[in-house]
Specification:
With 598 residues, this protein is α+β, with helices and mostly antiparallel strands. Helices cover 26% and strands 21% of the residues.
């Protein structure tokens, strides 16, 4: 890149980074004589007024942030067609490089860096901004150990008037929160989740979720619990592991409720090292090494917050030596048995039980005696069973009424179904015809109809990113490629259904992808020369420069073609020929091969 000075003030020196939306240059503020970093959007965004407006809005919002752990934004401007943001130049190494080189990091160092990042995020959240792309690559660590958050390029602020973002609308998939992977809006808890992944990686040298594709990784963020980090690094304190797993909770409400709270918990994790039930009720007990139980009451000055013991019984009998309560109960049961046996003997019933109905002892009558009921003894009535009705095809309300008429208790569940209509019964747990006693429960499931999901905005993003984003949100993808003079090759020009619409999950999303500034070669091979020349003359972006007439000596299968028929075409200087429908760069010079008469 040739050196250029923007607005007569900011000198571009060299490119130091590049992302999906912009390039970053090292530069110098000539007026203040200080080093700066300058961000410039990719050229294909210049024709997007909405993107440029959001670019300015987010830059202005970031410029309001002043914090030791956030890269300062100095200026936002435009020089002709070049829009730019001027930022603080931070000398240091990105955290991803440090992790790749040194992980697992010492616990104190990892926790210290995470606290600094959390402090910077708290400042952003307090100003109404969610970063949405927290990852080690976006954290610069200076030689003295200070962390600086950078790249608010996909941040969302209260200043933005857009409901959806053009470009990359959620962060790198390795650090992606479950709600973002499902297409839901990012919140401060989403940044906390991403920071939890970063801390996990610093402590273990591994990411919690990996897979063969970004879609597979995103789905693991949504559905799978992370492996407890102590399995990878037993040196991690138990309380810190519990806090990391809490930050990685699938439900945002179960995470620390903000970056400030996360920083405070990091500062005191060692004070709750034995309280996994307080920090994270879902912490697997297998994650902690076996240990002898510790007394629960807190000692003065330890700072521990013990789990309260069970409430004691108000009145407790003093302990007695000799017969305990258990022995006393056994004795009472034996005594009751003896008294019952004596009653049977005195009434003669025991003899009847032994002799049977015929009174002949064990040699006559039945192998098993039949007991006879004394007059006035209580009787047991066998309640009549009822058949479970078939609920298929009924509405939920009708199924409820049908079960109640059969004297059964309806238990209704609901779930989305892409096929079964809203309010129709999907299934029942107890099969029709099963005999049950009245009052027993029968569970059935009613359809809520197809799950409606907001269509993500993938325009102006690379095709691989767009495809992964849509598939993760539950949309099969159909790709249509076409030329574009304004969008770079491989980027999405447009999509259908439109971004922001709520459509049934599983709806096919069609994305139109740019082939770049190319022209389709028209179907002229096989036509007569005059027709072909006329068509090429009317095709913008192509020009016919030569017609090569070929005789029997140069044209294989000479007799197969008509005289004057176009038999081939090439781009001037190219080694391979063209076929009808091929795409060639705009402005290409075309050479036609035509059969010459003998």
């Amino acid at each position: 890149m040739q050196q250029k000075v923007l607005d007569g003030r900011y000198e571009l020196e060299r490119k130091i980074g590049e992302g999906g939306m912009a390039r970053i240059y090292a530069g110098r503020d000539l007026r203040l004589n200080r080093r700066v970093a300058i961000k410039i959007p990719h050229s294909h965004y210049l024709s997007e007024p909405d993107f440029l407006e959001r670019f300015r809005h987010e830059a202005q919002a970031a410029a309001m942030l002043t914090h030791p752990n956030i890269v300062d934004v100095y200026d936002v401007g435009r020089d002709g067609d070049i829009h730019y943001i001027v930022m603080e130049f931070v000398e240091g190494t990105d955290l991803k490089t440090i992790i790749n080189r040194e992980a697992p990091l010492a616990v104190a160092r990892a926790v210290g860096l995470a606290q600094q990042i959390a402090a910077g995020l708290h400042a952003a959240h307090r100003a109404g901004m969610v970063h949405r792309d927290i990852k080690p690559q976006n954290v610069i660590v200076t030689p003295d150990g200070r962390a600086h958050i950078t790249d608010f390029g996909v941040a969302k602020s209260h200043l933005s008037t857009a409901l959806t973002e053009t470009g990359v609308s959620f962060g790198t998939v390795d650090y992606l929160s479950p709600e973002q992977a499902q297409g839901r809006p990012a919140t401060p808890q989403s940044d906390v989740y991403a920071l939890g992944v970063v801390l996990y990686e610093m402590l273990t040298g591994r990411l919690p979720f990996t897979g063969d594709s970004s879609v597979a990784v995103a789905m693991k963020h949504v559905t799978e619990p992370p492996p407890p980090p102590r399995r990878l690094n037993p040196q991690i304190p138990l309380g810190l592991e519990a806090l990391v797993l809490r930050a990685l909770a699938k439900d945002p409400s179960q995470r620390p409720q903000g970056a400030q709270q996360f920083a405070q918990l990091l500062a005191s994790y060692d004070q709750v090292a034995q309280q996994e039930t307080v920090i994270n009720p879902a912490l697997p007990r297998s994650a902690a090494p076996a240990a002898q139980p510790r007394p629960q009451p807190a000692m003065a000055g330890t700072g521990r917050v013990p789990i309260p013991p069970p409430r004691p019984t108000p009145v407790r009998a003093p302990r007695q030596d000799g017969l305990g309560c258990g022995v006393f109960l056994v004795g009472m049961l034996v005594l009751a048995g003896v008294l019952g046996l004596a009653a049977l003997v005195s009434s003669g019933a025991l003899g009847q039980l032994i002799a049977g109905p015929g009174g002949g002892g064990s040699s006559g009558g039945q192998a098993f005696p039949t007991a006879t009921l004394a007059p006035g003894a209580p009787t047991t009535t066998v309640e009549q069973t009822v058949a479970v009705p078939d609920l298929a095809g009924l509405t939920g309300d009708t199924a409820d009424a049908t079960l109640r008429q059969s004297r059964l208790v309806p238990v209704r569940q609901e779930r989305n179904d892409p096929v079964i209509a809203f309010s129709q019964v999907i299934s029942q747990e107890v099969p029709p015809g099963t005999m049950l006693l009245p009052g027993q429960p029968v569970t059935y499931t009613v359809s809520l109809g197809p799950l409606l999901v907001e269509m993500p905005d993938v325009t102006r993003t690379p095709i691989t990113f767009a495809r992964d984003r849509l598939v993760t949100a539950g949309f099969p993808v159909e790709v249509v490629e076409e030329p574009s003079t304004t969008v770079d090759a491989g980027y999405v020009i447009a999509q259908a259904p439109s971004a922001g619409l709520r459509v049934p999950q599983g709806t096919v999303a069609t994305i139109r992808v740019s082939r770049g500034d190319v022209v389709r070669f028209p179907d002229v091979i096989g036509l007569q020369r005059e027709q072909a020349e006329q068509i090429l003359a009317n095709t913008p972006g192509l020009r016919l420069v030569f017609v090569d007439e070929q005789g029997r000596d140069r044209l294989p299968d000479y007799d197969r073609y008509a005289v004057g028929e176009v038999v081939s075409a090439t781009v001037e200087g190219a080694a391979t020929g063209l076929s009808n429908g091929d795409y060639v760069p705009r402005g290409s010079a075309i050479v036609l091969g035509v059969k010459r008469g003998e």
